[in-house]
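--- STAGE predict ---
source: upstream dedup step, 1 unique chain passed
mode: sequence only
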Amino acid sequence: MQYADVAVARRIGTRETLLTYSISPELLPSIQVGMMVEVPFRATLATGIVTHFRRSLPKSGLLARLKPIRRLLSPWPVLLADDLAFRLALADQTAAGRSLTLTEQLPPRSLLKQLEAPQPPARLLPTNRLFELGAATNSLAYLLPKIRTVLDKGFSVSLIAPTSTMVDILYQLWQKHLSGQVEVFRPDGPVDSLLPIWQAVFGKTTKLIIGPRSTVLLPFRRLGLTIIDSVGHPQLSEEQAPYYEAFTAARLRLTTAGGSLIARSSLPPLDLLGSTQRRLWQFRGREQPLPRIIISQYRSENLFSPAAEESIEKSRTDRQRVVVVVRDHGGARGSICKSCGLMQRCHTCQTLLVPLDAPSTGSNQSPISCSKCQTPLGAKPGCLNCHSFDLKSFGRGTELWQKIIGQHFPGLQVEIMARATAVPQNWQLLVVAPSWLQLPPVEADRIIVIKPEDFLASSDFFGQEDWHRLLLELRNRARLELIIETTEPEQAFFSELTELLPRQMIRTTLAERRAAGYPPYGNVLFLKLTASTTAQLAKLGQTVRRLVTTALPEATFLGPLDTSEARNPEKMSAKILVKFAGQLPTTRLRELREHLPSGIRMQIFPAEHTTKILRPSARGQL
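--- STAGE serialize ---
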């Protein structure tokens, strides 16, 4: 008799380990590593993946408790050796549970009977790594020939976007030029819609697959090119088990599956610039000349500075297009509940919720996601605390700017663009909020930015990286002119915009990170604790600190930071950041995860998206 280790698609308490099952004689001739199987799990049946075989058990007493594999769900391996190696390496990067990582994004059981045996795996060589600095990844002139070449060679292409809105827009764009060869991957969509996706994954057809971050885990047999847009976007990181980040995972997959990778961001991840990774990558910058950059002093008593007014008038005369970037969506800057006095803020990123975000008056209104981080605002409409509809708005958002600009420049076609999927038609001046930068590029002749210091209000080096990403992205979307209306024109950020890359900022940031021991020169562990009272939270923190100190004796604690839970004001939460040097001790951290008290979430972040977790609420402790 032989035995098999199986990754089960279930949480096993705090443990996420592989389970061992016996193999019955009738299954022994046909079972293979990588097959999907049905196994007994507690009182139910569960789906699993065979990871490897055993001829003997480590303890003789285990045989009596061993359960048999019930049946094979797939007649062929769903995950090949390369896929298993990739997923195990990905789990080790963040000390995530191997079972959940190995069983993520498998074909639905109901589709297995409709799928034919996969094609033999193949690699498209050579392997290339290209990082586009601000150039539009979805520009037809550059990407279309590359995608067509890969498809013509019999390989598929995956295009990963951070938000569902971007996925829909990119699908509409590419469907016009590759009709019949484009599919959208929606992991939670109808099962029938997934059939063409899995046919392409198993090599029966060649497609351009457009999808969210989980697309990177699809076990392609013949993947020639992966494209990732907006590297550094928070939505490219999975914060639930299994933990991963799409760009990190795509880079790791190059070593096992081959193919090429094209990534895009205004500022590349620092670990590509500050380590030996740089020599593996090509960097492609903007092909057209840089726009003229004007830094103007913002004065609240004026709508625009003289330079901005002159630019708008010239655009109206020459029939050119202008984009005005303001802080908020909607008709106001924020809202406050008149019943309980709560300022409406996103509980994840602390962004003020404007009327377009905050639930509107009326019992049939549904909650809307935060415009900045896309976090759902709650299960009930109205105030996030008492659910009252008596919300008072304040400030100035895109809708008010549209009205005021229209009055100031009569005859000018002024439109607004929120998080909608469609760009307004026949516009001359477009008023947008910063989330506009998360959508595929809508280039303009001139861009005017109103008080960018309101978008990001941190002066440490994490905040500087966010500043540069924002300003570089704006610079790369302006064809002729970029005007920045700011109350802080002396900031050094602005003088660096004329360079292709803000090299001085990168050198300074890397030096500060090295001195502080932050990635890419160290590791950061993130723990979130939740309890009903401050006293319980303190006791829980002591327990966790003792466990972490045992697992990582050299660790330095940053925090904790006590805050009330926005979703449930009766609960308290604390964030603990743990800094440690050297290689990631995967085994010790996995053991730590298994012994953490119930309800504690532990995440480990690679270098390139550490910035995302060190939000302004935590930066003061660093």
